[in-house]
Design brief:
By secondary structure, this protein is of the alpha+beta class. 43% of the residues lie in helices and 19% in strands. The protein is elongated and about 105 Å long. It binds zinc ion. InterPro entries: DUF6035, DUF7829, DUF7830.
Length: 450
């Protein structure tokens, strides 16, 4: 939350040299305007406090770039404040930061935040949680990991070997955004064959923001937290537990929306995706893909059921276009391959939906048995899959009931041997198999065997 930064009477000087500080306790990077604020009494108190902390050698705020403690100075004329380094020996590049790359600035800020109390506390919690679980060996805090090839090195917060084979590092993220650091670390451990697991202290609100987004969305929408609570569970169960927060997609009003979930989960139940450096509990991508397919299937069905008897391009073009857009947005490129006006496809879809709903779809018939006759008369190449659909959707009894004259039973007696001997007329036409498998997943397996 940003306080007092934009209000007119903020007591910060215009264009201060130091614009941000690192809070040594929380590890947060705070805008100077936020810590100064607009309350004169408060800022005077803060000024005394900061100097007291520095005297005790426990500085509260440090410069994000050079990590030197800073204190507040008041400009006499305007009674406005700014931050100044306790040691100004030119080591800080705060005034020449234009020469520093963003990556370097970020790396410095990141390392500064690592010196905070909160960060130290987190390292301890993680290391102790690992010690509770006998499968973690060689547990080490801030041990240098040297690259064999490039002379590069990293100092992960916590390192361990899991199950005698997975070299895993835990990196703590406290509160701000360090996308470059994240990407760079991911690349480093990927090259080195190590697995990187980001750990958070807390998540503000129910929704991951800022830095968390970068890790969150790149980690299959899962992120992990460690705390006294997870340490307690780990100790009790002698097995590493972390709190996982994740998005679970659900369909609501024909849209996929994300719901926020969290649970304390055992580490050994997580999926390790070395290639993409992902560790997750819930497979968001997979579930979302499934739901997207389901949604597309439902949309198509709705469209078909309401339009099939009147498939006139002009009248339904807008609706059809929306459907096509939806499919292409989700990379389901079926409409580019199929002509919905193709008589064979239309008949096949009508027959299968008829079987599914137990009533004629797309024909002005009254009974399902009439569809069966229609298929045998005009679309023998789809009779096998139609017959299978009748079975899958539990329509066999209905067909028997509707066949009071026994005509259908007679037909079946005639064509069954032909089908069994692979008569050409009854050979399944697989032109639309892919589309049918998509729309009727319950038939997919059978289609492959026809
Ligand atoms: Zn500095």
């Amino acid at each position: 939350m940003i306080k007092n930064t934009d209000v007119e009477n903020n007591l910060t000087v215009i264009n201060p040299e130091i614009t941000e500080v690192i809070d040594k306790i929380s590890g947060a990077i705070l805008p100077v305007k936020e810590i100064i604020g607009s309350d004169y009494d408060k800022v005077i108190k803060l000024r005394v406090e900061l100097l007291t902390f520095i005297k005790r050698n426990e500085p509260r705020y440090i410069c994000p770039l050079c990590h030197t403690p800073v204190y507040l100075v008041c400009r006499h004329k305007t009674r406005h404040f700014f931050c100044r380094h306790t040691i100004d020996d030119g080591r800080c590049t705060v005034d020449t930061r234009g020469n520093m790359s963003e990556a370097e600035i970020n790396a410095r800020k990141y390392n500064g935040a690592k010196e905070s109390e909160a960060h130290k506390q987190m390292k301890k919690i993680i290391a102790e949680s690992l010690k509770a679980d006998g499968r973690f060996k060689d547990i080490a805090i801030e041990q240098v990991w040297k690259s064999q090839e490039h002379g590069e090195w990293k100092k992960p917060d916590v390192y361990a070997i899991f199950d005698d084979r997975i070299r895993i590092v835990f990196e703590i993220q406290l509160s701000t955004t360090f996308l470059r650091v994240i990407v760079e670390r991911k690349e480093f451990y990927l090259k080195e064959g190590g697995l990187l697991c980001w750990i958070f202290k807390e998540i503000k609100e129910e929704y991951p923001r800022l830095m968390q987004d970068d890790i969150f969305y790149n980690n299959n929408c899962n992120l992990f937290l460690a705390s006294e609570e997870t340490l307690h569970v780990s100790n009790k169960q002698k097995r590493l537990f972390l709190k996982c927060c994740w998005f679970e997609p659900v369909i609501e009003n024909q849209e996929i929306v994300n719901t926020w979930k969290n649970e304390i989960v055992p580490f050994d139940q997580l999926t390790f995706d070395h290639e993409q450096q992902r560790i997750f509990f819930f497979d968001y991508d997979c579930e979302k893909h499934k739901l997207t397919q389901q949604l597309a299937r439902e949309r198509f069905e709705q469209f078909w059921l309401s339009n099939n008897s009147n498939l006139d391009l002009d009248e339904i073009s807008q609706e059809l276009q929306e459907l096509i857009d939806f499919f292409s947005k989700h990379n389901i490129l079926l409409f580019t391959q199929y002509d919905l006006h193709n008589d064979g496809l239309t008949s096949l879809l009508n027959a299968l939906y008829s079987a599914k709903y137990g009533k004629p779809i797309g024909y002005k018939f009254r009974k399902l048995i009439q569809i069966a006759h229609q298929m045998e008369n005009g679309h023998k190449k789809y009779l096998k899959i139609f017959g299978w659909a009748l079975r899958i959707y539990g329509r066999d009894e209905q067909i028997k009931r509707e066949d009071s004259s026994g005509k259908w039973a007679n037909k079946v007696d005639k064509f069954r041997p032909l089908m069994q001997s692979n008569d050409e007329k009854y050979q399944h036409d697989g032109s639309f198999d892919q589309f049918i498998s998509f729309l009727f997943p319950e038939l997919a397996e059978r289609l492959g065997k026809l």
